[in-house]
Specification:
By secondary structure, this protein is of the alpha+beta class. It has 7 helices and 4 strands, in the order βββαααααααβ.
Length: 196
């Protein structure tokens, strides 16, 4: 059983600034997962993996709340054309971080905010040329022909890195996890099985 701090009205799993993420919110989201199409793939409740899934879910909820708060700061709105959830490939999840990738895939407002945050990210010409020269086996054509695809690839990676780093800084500054809802990899929690 996880402990939780209680506000005047409800037990709290985490704080995003002054906004509490209540245990009830975590329970509702967990119930939706356990009733969803991937339910059979989830670890059983009460197991170390099940408790870590719950901790991971708290991470997702805090990042979603950060997205809402920052969208208000940057005056970002989600247009109807943003679409719904998108799939996320393992490589994307590994590059961006699992929570960030999950929130970006599931939450159109996060994608809109990401575009705002990375709008000024650019890749200098010398980096594009250096990549071309290091990867001639993959880019055999002349530089002028290969440059647009290389630039697009490097820009996507730079934007991904910039947004992830920006979001990581915000999490470090704004999120406080209550006892029992620590990050799954936090070695201080008893179910930690992910080591760096």
């Amino acid at each position: 059983m996880t402990a939780a701090v209680t506000t005047q009205s409800a037990p709290v799993a985490a704080w995003v600034g002054a906004r509490p993420i209540t245990v009830a919110e975590v329970d509702r989201r967990m119930a939706a997962l356990r009733e969803g199409p991937l339910a059979s793939r989830l670890p059983p409740e009460g197991t170390p993996q099940g408790r870590n899934l719950r901790r991971w879910l708290v991470q997702v909820l805090t990042v979603e709340e950060l997205v809402v708060q920052q969208a208000a700061v940057y005056d970002v709105v989600c247009e109807p054309c943003e679409g719904g959830p998108e799939s996320v490939a393992l490589a994307e999840a590994l590059r961006a971080g699992g929570v960030t990738a999950a929130v970006l895939a599931a939450y159109p407002l996060a994608r809109a905010l990401r575009r705002t945050i990375v709008a000024t990210v650019d890749v200098p010409e010398y980096e594009v040329r250096a990549y071309y020269l290091r990867n001639r086996d993959r880019h055999a054509g002349p530089f002028s022909q290969e440059e647009p695809a290389i630039r697009r690839c490097l820009l996507d990676a730079a934007c991904e890195r910039a947004f992830s780093q920006w979001l990581d800084r915000l999490v470090a500054q704004s999120v406080r996890l209550e006892h029992g809802f620590e990050h799954p990899a936090d070695p201080r929690q008893p179910d930690a099985d992910h080591r760096h």
